[in-house]
Amino acid sequence: MRTFLAVAFLSGGVAHATLGPALRIADVAPDIPLIVVVMLALRRGPEFGCGAGFLAGLLQDAATGGLLGVQALTKSVIGFAIGGVGSRLRVSAPLVQVPGLVVLSLVEGVARFALLQLFHFPAPFGELMTYVVLPQAIYNGFLGAALVLALSWAESVRERSS
Amino acid sequence: MRIRALALLGIVAGVCLLLLTLQMRGHASGATDLLALFTTPVQTVVSRINRTAFGLWSTYQDWKNVRAENRRLRDQAQRLRVESLRVSEVDDENRRLRRLLALKEALPLHTISGEVIGREWGGWVRSLTVNRGRSSNVVRLTAVIGPDGLIGRIVDVRGGSSVVQVLTDPASTVGAHVVRTRTPGIIEGEPRGTIRFKYMARDGAGMQVGDMVVTSGLGGLFPRGIPIGRVRAIDDRGSALFHYAQIEPAVDFARIDEVLLLIGDATRDVAAQFPGAS
Lengths: 162, 278
Prior knowledge:
Chain A has about 160 residues and is mainly α. Helices cover about 80% and strands about 0% of the residues of chain A. In chain A, helix 6 crosses helix 7 (about 125-160).
């Protein structure tokens, strides 16, 4: 499990910057760290989600050359929130996962924009939402659901073999 | 537990905001460098793995694309080749018909055009079947010509078709003369598919390879001056009464698709309508 977590952190923070471009579809890349943080928070609770979000976001900030702390903050908040309410959500169904991740991605996008506004980020909100945040949120929704399915399949295979 | 979680969130948020503030004031290079110490090697490794994996994938994709494209281009080349042959065929036919039409209009004779619908190319008989017969007022012994010269004569007339005995038929004989020397003689077909010019020794003096042989018009069957061929070789038989010359036919009999049948008066001289007959 610890190995899995380490891999998840790395894939969340660093691999996003390197593998993300390869997963681009029509210039839209998924936010892998967000998906990983949400998955971890759902399994391990708010503290873990917050820590995972902070670490993954910080690594992402560092890897992408952005302002250190922006994504660390938004993702840690998301991780904390999902970790807190996760037990009350029926997240095993893909019909919940896809829209859930879409909404979370939108919230994270809006939060990041709001935070960056404090530091005079120049991009207009409408365009940013239309061309960046919304397409990425939809992509995240489907990719996240696929990852959840793959993970539960892998776990069932492991349980059967052990 | 809940307080601890909230405290963690508070600390995290505080650290983040501190980092942001420091960066805006230009004091966060240390933190960035520290993180880069960790992220750069990991990124390098991941990137290498990524590049290798995607490189292999990309090579495979390229190979697949090249294969598909190769198949597509081969199909396209095949289609274009067929199309090109078709166009070339139509072009050839067009050219042939134009020549035939030009000849038909130039000749001072009544002619009808016919299309070759059958060929008999064995050594015993060499003939063509054309799609003109009794219904088109074709009669036996009608002369048949092409844009290049004489082809033969009608030997059998049917309702809607006729059989043309071509010059190379072993039974074919046509009165002819050499244009330059006026040497008269007879063009005979040979079993091997060639034609020869039979002439009397005393008349053949001065005949040379390359001389043009045309119909003589004697006998009233063929108009005078239709090209038959050029002398290819002269077979001098010494004191024999008749000598022979091998003739290169003016017409390529194997490639005839359209012909003109000369209907009616055939006593005119048509040499002027065949530029090569001189």
